[in-house]
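lol ok so funny story. i was supposed to be doing the assay writeup but got distracted and ended up predicting the structure for this chain instead. priorities right. anyway since i did it might as well share w the group, maybe its usefull for someone
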Amino acid sequence: MKKILFLLIISVFVSCNLFNPNDETLPELLIIYPENGDELSVRDTIKVETSDNVGIKKVECEISTNNYSFTEIEVTTPFNFPISFIDNHLDSIQIECISFDENNNQSEPQNIMVTINNDLNPINGVHDGDEQFIIDLIEINQLSELYTEETTWDEINNLSRITGIQYRNIVIDSIPLSFENLSQLSLLELINDSLKTLPESIGDLIFLEEIRVQNNQLTEIPESITNLSNLKIIDFSNNEINSIPLEFNNLSCADCRLEIIKLQNNKINFIDLYEFNHLEVVWLANNELEDINLSCLNSIWSNVYNPENPTVTLYENKLCNNPSSYGSCINEEKLGVQICD
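and the output, tada:
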């Protein structure tokens, strides 16, 4: 029995490398794509091969421009790093990759330089990523065309970029993945388009100021919308939305600019707007609200209530308690007629 126990202890020590000689073998690493001096566009993938006598723990690749740098880490094979170069037109990019083995030995770093050209296909002064979005949208929805006045283009960093979309009365079954390319988009208007979903990548379009997606078939608002601190207007009226994103209060931050929320004619049963002190319009009529949280410090109460042009609409909900229980600023006139069966 003692002999077995001794052997078990020895095996544990060996497995932990306690009795092994120090591992001084460095991993070997090679960036197999791209090659030094390559020209890349829009999005691409860095591909790395690495090996070691013990095993590879992780690979780190640092991507650097003149203005910023960031590091990507991958711990499983294949060691591939998808990278967006959407806003790097004509930039020179340095890529440095290092691998680490299980004993934290690291390879010699490999460095390459690449350049970014987002006007390759075709060369026409239009950003390839934005152009691909238009092509994809037409193809996957089998549209005959999009009228030019429905898409706003502006010159940014020497390329034409999409800054506004106003698509109305078009049957759009799906928004293509290339939607994430529209990094300069500030206005998104999709009205009466039979749209059922919006991609979560909308949360990466940080310059968005207005989202107007009325008269569609949405059942939810993308959670990622709460990343968009530049939003001024949210209008999802006349859909089938039944809940609000969990982190919706993120849009009440000190640097946020949200002023108008229009969510009337949906199926929402609760919304918390207590932290939103700069709202000018809140339209929530004809939902299924059973409770609501509004602050009396909110700007929506600063004007005298006008039924013809209200800053707040709450009628046709299920707010059936005493009006003051929803906030001291709310009276019967502001609450309006409720559905209290």
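Residues 62 and 71 are 4 Å apart (CA to CA). DSSP finds three helices and 18 strands in the chain.
back to the writeup now i swear
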